[in-house]
Design a protein that fits this description.
Number of strands: 8
Strand order of the largest sheet: 1-2-4-3-5-6-7-8
Radius of gyration: 18 Å
Number of helices: 11
Mean pLDDT: 92
Number of domains: 1
Strand content: 15-25%
CATH architecture: 3-Layer(aba) Sandwich
Distance between the termini: 37 Å
Amino acid sequence: MDHAGTSLSELTVDQLAIAAGRPVGVLVPVGATPEGATIELDVADEGPRDGEVVLLVAGLGMQRTDWAPELMVALRGAGYRTITVDNRDCGRSTVLPGMIEDLPVGEDGWPQPAYPLAAMARDLVAVLAQLEVDRAHVIGISMGGMIAQHLASAHPELVASLTSLMSTTGATSVGQTHAEVRWVLGTPAPTEFAPYLDHAVSTATAVGSPGLVDAERVRATATVAFARGLHPQGTTRQLLSIRADGDRTRALAEITAPTLVVHGDADPLIDVSGGRATASAIPDATLVVVEGLGHDLALLDPIATAILDHLAAHPV
């Protein structure tokens, strides 16, 4: 991004978002904490009002502004109305109070999750209701794929089609993180600007498509994320929810939505076995394995083509 000599501190969050081609969102109330505080999600609703709705569900610590602009343009160019969301504990959505060390510890010695992934799926049900959307295509990436699985399993009436990108079933025998990149999940992002950008590039390089990570692009996206707000405790709470969710294989067998599963064969964060298992568990799912793809959307053309073909084949 070229800010014409303007420093980061002189730019508002909305100016940064617009400079990066990202829309300004609105806060949508979706529920309440156990203490009674309102939970609001930051939501961007774009595209033709009469278009079929595509709900995109973000991954661990991923802000709605992180989605590849080319994918968003392709979806809207095909006539779809897109809804992107900051999950709870991320971006400009409600961040829960408290510290990880304040959570009760289970028998396994791990902190207990502050909320289940199913609650994050219910947040999205509330978003669709608030926007008066009766049925949508649902695309989930990484943790977002897990949340989307919950949504499709619990609310089949809402899901016209499901796309699970680089996700897994929760079974411990598949989709495990490769040893050499486990540090990514255990290293909190720095809270200072320059170190945060460096961390974003290091992380993207570690888990992304080999030889295809665009450091300048990563820094531009991370600049917007930094300005919108970093919440390390929130990301850890999301991670604890993933860990506690368990094996969803039986629930996946109940999904009736037409399903596309996309995974890269070079994904070290969620091994491709997770994608294969997801496709095996969901009746009649279509599996697309992209050669050379890591845990990112660097090879977007085959992914976008597969998604657009899938949506077109299963209209709302």
